[in-house]
Amino acid sequence: MSSLEDIPTPDNGFYVLVTGANSGLGLGIGKRLIDEFLQTRPQSESLVLIVTTRDQRKGDATIENLQQHLRKVIASHERKLPGIAQVLQHRIFFRQERLDLLSLVSVQKLCRKLRETTPKLDVVICNAGIGGWTGINWPLAVYKILTSWSTAVCWPTFKISGVGWVAKPQIPAEMKVEEPPLGEVFCANFFGHYLLGHYLAPLLAKHPRSENTKGRIIWVSSLEAYEHVLDLNDIQGIGSTLPYEATKRLTDVMAITSALPSTCDVADEYLDQSQASEKTTKPRIYVTHPGICGTSIVALPLILEYLMFTAFYVARWLGSQWHPVTVDKGACAMVWLALAQQDTLDNMEEKEGVGKWGSATDFWGQERAERTEVAWWGWGGKSAEYKRKKGRDPYAKDATKESRERFLETGRKCWEEMERLRIEWEGRLRRAGVGIEME
Ligand SMILES: NC(=O)c1ccc[n+]([C@@H]2O[C@H](COP(=O)([O-])OP(=O)(O)OC[C@H]3O[C@@H](n4cnc5c(N)ncnc54)[C@H](OP(=O)(O)O)[C@@H]3O)[C@@H](O)[C@H]2O)c1
Q1: Tens-digit pLDDT profile for residues 14-41
Q2: Ligand 1 proximity of 220 Cβ (cutoff 6 Å)
Q3: Neighbour-count burial of 340, counting CB atoms closer than 10 A to its CB (0-12 exposed, 13-18 middle, 19+ buried)
Q4: SUPFAM superfamilies, per this entry (predicted)?
Q5: Phi then psi dihedrals of residue 287, to 5 deg
Q6: 109: phi then psi, degrees, rounded to nearest 5
Q7: Ligand 1 lined by 111 (C-beta under 6 Å)
């Protein structure tokens, strides 16, 4: 964990926080950010990459891994332009912090520390997550892959989920405070990040209006964010047989509606807009997904891991655009959203509507950020956008005026429920004497 002396605060720093940065996509995001930042941002800007992990050992290993990557990148720049290494070395700073999303107090502790030690934040990438799966239905997997290869490895129906999983208690038993169950997959994938975004909103808002840029919260969703899995009567998915997918649908619905007039008032409260001034700008929430990448989110023995990678590459060669396969390519959409000029994003949204951005590749593995269909909403909530058929879930239905209205209504209900839950948990932790006050 960073001690106060080694917390980097360079002039003209661009501050990005990535959760779950020690493995899989999180590590891919860190490396790609370094590459693209050095290539696209002016020499006067420095990147401060704040990585969160669950323990010090993982944090140290992550920093070492990123430093090694940086050395390689700098060496390759130096070969092309001798002398540039001196400049580049001083443009990337690393910092590590502890975060366990299954502990709301851990989220509060980290945010309090960041608020006390960090001048501002530019981007928070909410990447960490768990699958909550207990295994794979192998006969079904083999049958599905052999009969509809690309669909089977894009929208798999053979993962078996744990049902009824709840997070460990948030309040020590000796405090004798009753607490309701908190869905484990819900808390790790969504609710922990939800609180994180709320407490970090004041740091993300620290962009004077004149800068014409906004702090960004980037939520990481999935292709598997099916509409039918989100049950508003069990929004935490505790009784669901697809709790992972339910958290991803919740992510899509809430991120997209966060920017729309029907929900904006609740989202403004969440984004702590009470102190808005000329010196601040309301942060934005964006939603992304990495396509399909081979990571340990599905734990497999080595031989099956090789087979998984093979199945993913074959799917790409059979025409699936959603198989980046490697995490550096899977990180494309998140890093693009993190570094894109605000005007670019705003203009695209004005033209195409608010949507979900995924990492896609062509046959040769050339990656790009690509709009992705969201059930009931479409690609941008506009009518007449169904020319874009590529990359659709084969069971997707065209969005209609009615479905878009249902989407907005669901978004509002979800936002109201999440705000209620946040305030309720904050009060409970405070009353138990374990909650951390922010100021
Ligand atoms: N891989 C894909 O094809 C794919 C597809 C769609 C979406 N995604 C999304 O991409 C994100 C990253 O997944 P991945 O595939 O890279 O999986 P991964 O390799 O298993 O990485 C997950 C990361 O999340 C961290 N994490 C898990 N539980 C946590 C908690 N309670 N508190 C803090 N950190 C926690 C893990 O830390 P530990 O090492 O400490 O466990 C790890 O760093 C997830 O949100 C996932 O849903 C992945």
Answers
A1: 999 999 999 999 999 999 999 999 999 9
A2: yes
A3: middle
A4: NAD(P)-binding Rossmann-fold domains
A5: -120, 140
A6: -60, -45
A7: no
pLDDT digits (tens, 9 = 90+) for 179-233: 999 999 999 999 999 999 999 999 999 999 888 899 999 999 999 999 999 999 9
Which residue type is seen at 80?
K
Report the b/e string of 376-395 with b at 16+ CB within 10 A.
bbbbbbbeebeeeeebebee
Under 8 Å between Cβ of 272 and 202: yes
Ligand 1 centre distance from Cα of residue 92 (Å): 24
- The answer to whether residue 221 is catalytic is yes
Q: Are 194 and 272 in contact (CB under 8 A)?
A: no
Res 6: pLDDT:
72
Pick from 339, 279, 330: which is nearest to 122 by CA? 339
DSSP E strands, 42-91: 46-53
At 358, list the tokens. Answer: 């995924």
The per-residue pLDDT for 386 is: 66
pLDDT in tens, 375-429: 999 999 988 776 666 889 888 899 999 999 999 999 999 999 999 999 999 999 9
Which of 17, 18, 31, 54, when mutated, tests ligand 1's pocket best, judged by the most ligand atoms within 8 Å of its CB? 54
Joined together, the tokens standing for residue 293 give 């990448």
Distance 387 CA to ligand 1 centre (A): 34
325: left (phi over 0), alpha (psi -120 to 50) or beta: left
User: For residue 20, how far is its CA from the centre of ligand 1 (angstroms)?
Assistant: 6
Instruction: List Cα–Cα distances, 58 to 1, 82, 289, in angstroms.
Output: 11, 34, 24
Beta bridge partners of 361: 367
CA–CA dist 134, 69 (Å, integer): 34
Query: Considering only CA atoms, which of 127, 41, 48 is closest in space to residue 94?
Result: 48
Q: Is 248 a catalytic residue?
A: yes
Query: Which tokens belong to 263?
Result: 């929900």
Q: Which two tokens stand for residue 202?
A: 């004041």
All structural domains of the chain, each given as residue ranges with its CATH number in brackets, are 99-431 (3.40.50)
